[in-house]
Amino acid sequence: MDYDIAVFMKSDKAPFMETIEDFQNIVVNRFGIDKSIMNATIGKSLNGSLQFSLDGIDFDIVPATNMLPHDYPLENMAEIQNKQMLRHIEKADNPTKSAKVNSSGLTEATIEFVQSQSTFVLQVARLAKYWNSTLLYNEYLAGRSYVIELLGIAAGQGTELYKPQVPRLPSIRLLLNS
């Protein structure tokens, strides 16, 4: 099991190097985790993150820029954040680099996309993530779980599109052939 935690920062902008260091110090001081076993990608990746394990559970803390105005309506929060972040990326001098640095700011839209899937597609995605958890790797691969979830969604959608009331086995075949 793993938890991906996006922390939206109003006063900080990507790449969040100082913020990652602050998060790392909080986790070390609060939970007594040895700093040497934490994987803080400070300056190693464009947007920065902090990965660590606590009681056998993997955590990935990723700061994101909060693009919401102070008076935003709660019911449109994800939509406004997404539009503002995309506008910010498009206006950047280097939109490709800006997209990489600011991808965590699109977290709410990503969650809404996953939640909008049918029950069948979500079951296939969960099955794909479970299958992924049984594969042993010596290294941490950032984004691995999410990529597998997206492949599961694609496999579920592909199967659902052609055979709406089909068992899960064809979806799993489609996933493994992806």
Describe the fold and architecture.
There is one protein chain. By secondary structure, the protein is of the alpha+beta class. It has two domains: about 100 residues, no CATH class; about 60 residues. About 50% of the residues lie in helices and about 15% in strands. The protein has a four-stranded mixed β-sheet, with helices on one face. The longest helix is centred in the last third of the chain and has 19 residues. It is globular. About 5% of the residues have low confidence.
Layout of SSEs?
Blueprint: E1 2-9, H1 17-31, E2 39-40, E3 50-54, E4 57-65, H2 77-91, H3 95-102, H4 107-115, H5 119-133, H6 144-162, H7 169-176
Helix pairs in contact: 2-3, 2-4, 5-6, 6-7
Number of helices: 7
Order of helices and strands: EHEEEHHHHHH
Main structural class: alpha+beta
Low-pLDDT residue intervals, each spanning 5 or more residues: 42-46
Major beta-sheet overview:
4 strands, mixed
Q: What's the pLDDT, averaged over the residues?
A: 79
Widest sheet, order of strands: 1-4-3-2
> How many discrete structural domains?
2
- Shape estimate: globular
Oligomer: single chain
